[in-house]
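So, can you check?
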Amino acid sequence: MMRAQVRLPRWLIRIAVRMLRVPTSATVSVTKDRAGSTGVRVYTPTGARSGAGLLWIHGGGLLFGDAKQDEALCLSTAERLGLVIVSANYRFAPEHPFPAAHEDVLSTWRWLIAHAAELGVDPERVVVGGESAGAGLAAALVQRIHDEGGVQPCGQWLFAPMLDDRTAARRELDAEQHFVWDNGRNREGWAGYLGAEPGAATVPDYAVPARRTDLSGLPPAFLTWGDIELFAGEDLAYAEALRAAGVSVTTDVVEGAPHGFENWAKDAPVARALVARAQEWLRGVTAPA
């Protein structure tokens, strides 16, 4: 018999995340700064730098989270690849619906590009990435940057991205009770972000990445997800739509893996292996031309 998942209240999750104890590293310095209305964490290698950068966006279903929750991944990536990483904070739904979070990560992108010289980053070698809701925000941000022109990211690094509100509208998925992130919570996140029930005929531009019909001209993408998680179908569909639009796409589907396992089970061999593969893709896409 499947045991029902215990859902903690959103306020308690937010407090718990803020109290996270994070790892330390002797080879990466971590500082805090401001980018628009939100704070950022900047990870700077103390050793050799590649000259490339990563804008990273944390997950939390659009409802909670903090940049420091992905400290282990950011430290590892900065250290192994010599990247400067700017990890973004943003405002949460439902108190701050779209476009609040989108505008916050856009402000962080603009801050990173404006400060590229002092950060030691080549603005032409910056990737936008994230996990879960953060990966969805990253995908939408890449679309917005493409449409506005100017300096473009050289890649998008997406871990189990939350891309499509129409998944939340599929009530038959509720019974599956996906581990970590189920469709009831998914519907709560999308409804709070959109300010309306998910699955409407139309949504605002950049609110739902999977709703965009023209994906041509976007940068190369790395997408990974577990084959048993709620987002498996929408992530596969987005990868296929990118390929159909002529975008270079690398997918890494992990068998038997639930949502976000590379974060909360980061010391498991399968998680370490995935992160290593993802980092090698990142190394290649940020290499000097």
